[in-house]
């Protein structure tokens, strides 16, 4: 939503809802909390500024549209709305939020309802090297009743067809497996591989499941939302009737914990399942997990069975992210990393062929969420790669191999690397004739990604398999990289420009990287010669060598992020002086809320600020990390971590407000600094 500056100022003066002052936010209050974030189609959030009234505010899909997901608890016969009850049933009260916390895998909210305290723990596992666990398209919600005075307590939760992407015509079903109850909701009359205007999948099924916990008893119902909720509010249980789908309907569970003073928990699993998940050149791909659990009910039963092990792993994982961030650059940096993790891994899917279910033929696919919806965009993989380099370098191979596969077919005839393998996720059907072309950008990126995988794993299989293509792209950089023709770069907002310095830097570092990849010093030498001309001979800088320019001889400066692989891989293509001088320059052009991407615009991008933070040191590094931390905690924003934001006032926007993008998996770039010192940290 576009706010006027006056409205924003009024909102800041007015403050949040009265209850917000009593809430403890740890480690900070982010723009949006991840709730269930496991794939581009299971991506539920709650804006940070709505947490004070979370009992009455709905979850949101990453695009901002509402998802119906509610939790109500009864304590000694009085019903309290805990989460997502936008229209409270008569006779109910709103619980009071006292704390909100996030880690890299959990978002946790503590509420007081009458004499008892409840915790809502939204847990989206991130298991970088366990493809079975990582590929399961489900997330956990655990509701914990804290120990207290003896009370009669019941817990209710429901969802509706908003999770299917179509609320005009859907169907639902209920089944059981042992003690586990499973609801499935699916849109009717929709096409495989289709999306709605908000980017939700229109095929497949939304899944909601639970089972009795401790000594609780479980009841179920489906039907009109007001009627189903009112039944629970009045009696603490549901009827067991499963009416046919209606547009105002929900599927609901009720747990009766009985009279208890002890701590008690109930866990729900929410998900979105698509048997045919990716269209890879007319070869349907499906989730990796289906090699073991091909039936949806079996898969969600396993997911609930796996809770203890997944949660134990998440504790180790959260500690790892915290320690990695703190040791790299302090607690502010670890706050940023923890908030970035689920967004990255929630933007990818690990798949196998749907016909063979052969796990030796594993691929991964990434969606360019919110910016244009492409599939396996090479520069998006490049932006994200630092997190994979640290946590799961095999994912780099799984993401880039489908790109190489496509470029090796007769359908792709260009001498440079492709931009993506399909305009619209999940359809990997080839680069469209009118699609974006980034010849130098993507040719350099595929070389960087191949070497990152090889450097992190010690495996040479990717470079060996695609050696002919890699040489072709390295030769393209050599022949075209020093004086780039008019073309797009990663900052495609600039349009097509000739002699872009950042592209020449990419060519120089790309050549040096290719030399290291294949052990051929002539390419390394060529890369250093390019770098010498760009820097030492002032081809890409001002006359005094104080800054890099957007274009050769053109005044505006540019944030040079393509230096990063030079330092990460220890190539020494550019001299130390280039990094020292730029570190001195960037603070002089900082705007109110951060360093812009270049001297001609009023916005910055956290991806490339993070790459640059890894190439500089001292006060400049401190400044870049501090600006990013301030941006993510300033209370002005509500979208899932937007990686582009205004660094100065601009029309209806103010410095520190998000700009255009949301929920993109490019936040792996925030790990650029950590990758320099941490290396491959997740070894188990």
UniProtKB/TrEMBL annotation:
Residues 1-22 form the signal peptide. InterPro entries: Glutaminase_GtaA (IPR052743), GtaA_central (IPR032514), GtaA_N (IPR033433). Residues 330-673 form the Glutaminase A central domain. The keyword Ligase does not apply. Keywords: Signal. Residues 105-323 form the Glutaminase A N-terminal domain. PANTHER family: GLUTAMINASE A-RELATED, PUTATIVE (AFU_ORTHOLOGUE AFUA_6G09910)-RELATED. This is Glutaminase. The lineage of its organism: Eukaryota, Fungi, Dikarya, Ascomycota, Pezizomycotina.
């Amino acid at each position: 939503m576009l706010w006027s500056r006056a409205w924003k100022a009024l909102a800041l003066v007015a403050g949040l809802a009265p209850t917000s002052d009593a809430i403890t936010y740890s480690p900070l209050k982010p723009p949006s909390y991840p709730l269930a974030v496991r794939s581009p189609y299971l991506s539920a959030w709650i804006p940070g500024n709505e947490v004070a009234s979370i009992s009455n505010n709905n979850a949101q899909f990453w695009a901002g549209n509402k998802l119906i997901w509610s939790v109500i608890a009864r304590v000694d016969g009085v019903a309290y709305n805990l989460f997502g009850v936008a229209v409270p049933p008569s006779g109910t009260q709103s619980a009071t939020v006292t704390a909100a916390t996030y880690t890299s895998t959990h978002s946790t909210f503590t509420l007081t309802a009458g004499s008892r305290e409840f915790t809502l723990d939204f847990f989206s596992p991130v298991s970088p090297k366990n493809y079975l666990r990582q590929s399961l398209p489900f997330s956990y919600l655990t509701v914990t009743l804290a120990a207290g005075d003896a009370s009669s307590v019941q817990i209710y939760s429901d969802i509706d067809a908003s999770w299917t992407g179509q609320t005009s015509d859907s169907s639902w079903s209920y089944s059981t497996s042992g003690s586990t109850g499973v609801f499935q909701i699916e849109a009717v009359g929709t096409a495989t591989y289709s999306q709605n205007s908000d980017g939700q999948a229109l095929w497949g099924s939304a899944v909601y499941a639970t089972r009795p916990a401790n000594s609780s008893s479980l009841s179920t119902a489906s039907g009109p939302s007001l009627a189903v909720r009112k039944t629970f509010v009045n009696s603490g249980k549901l009827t067991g009737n499963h009416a046919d789908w209606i547009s105002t309907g929900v599927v609901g569970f009720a747990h009766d914990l009985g009279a208890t003073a002890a701590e008690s928990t109930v866990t729900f699993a929410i998900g979105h399942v698509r048997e045919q998940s990716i269209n890879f050149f007319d070869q349907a791909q499906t989730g990796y997990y289906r090699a073991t659990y091909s039936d949806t009910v079996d898969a969600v039963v396993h997911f609930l069975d796996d809770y203890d092990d997944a949660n134990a792993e998440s504790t180790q994982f959260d500690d790892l992210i915290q320690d990695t961030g703190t040791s790299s650059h302090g607690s502010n940096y670890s706050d940023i990393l923890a908030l970035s993790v689920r967004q990255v891994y929630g933007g990818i899917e690990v798949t196998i062929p749907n016909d063979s279910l052969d796990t030796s033929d594993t691929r991964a696919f990434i969606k360019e969420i919110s910016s244009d919806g492409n599939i396996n965009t090479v520069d998006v993989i490049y932006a994200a790669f630092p997190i994979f380099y640290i946590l799961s370098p095999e994912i780099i191979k799984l993401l880039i191999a489908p790109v190489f596969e496509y470029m090796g077919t007769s359908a792709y005839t260009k001498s440079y690397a492709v931009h993506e393998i399909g305009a619209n996720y999940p359809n990997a059907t080839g680069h469209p004739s009118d699609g974006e072309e980034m010849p130098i950008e993507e040719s350099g990126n595929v070389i960087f990604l191949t070497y990152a995988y090889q450097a992190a794993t010690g495996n040479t299989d990717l470079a060996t398999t695609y050696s002919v293509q890699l040489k072709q792209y390295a030769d393209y950089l050599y022949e075209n990289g020093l004086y780039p023709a008019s073309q797009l770069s990663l900052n495609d907002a600039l349009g097509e420009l000739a002699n872009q310095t950042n592209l020449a830097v990419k060519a120089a570092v790309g050549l040096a990287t290719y030399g290291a990849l294949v052990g051929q010093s002539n390419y390394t030498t060529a890369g250093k010669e390019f770098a010498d001309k760009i820097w030492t001979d002032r081809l890409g800088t001002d006359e005094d060598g104080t800054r890099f320019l957007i274009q050769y001889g053109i005044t505006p400066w540019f944030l040079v992020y393509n230096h990063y692989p030079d330092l990460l891989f220890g190539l020494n293509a550019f001299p130390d002086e280039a990094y020292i001088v730029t570190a001195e320059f960037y603070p002089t052009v900082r705007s109110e809320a951060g360093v812009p991407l270049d001297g001609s615009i009023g916005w910055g991008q956290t991806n490339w600020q993070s790459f640059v933070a890894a190439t500089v040191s001292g006060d400049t590094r401190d400044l870049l990390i501090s600006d990013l931390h301030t941006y993510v905690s300033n209370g002005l924003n509500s979208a899932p971590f937007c990686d582009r934001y205004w660094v100065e006032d601009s029309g209806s926007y103010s410095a520190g407000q998000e700009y255009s993008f949301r929920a993109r998996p490019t936040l792996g770039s925030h790990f650029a600094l950590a990758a320099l010192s941490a290396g491959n940290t997740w070894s188990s």
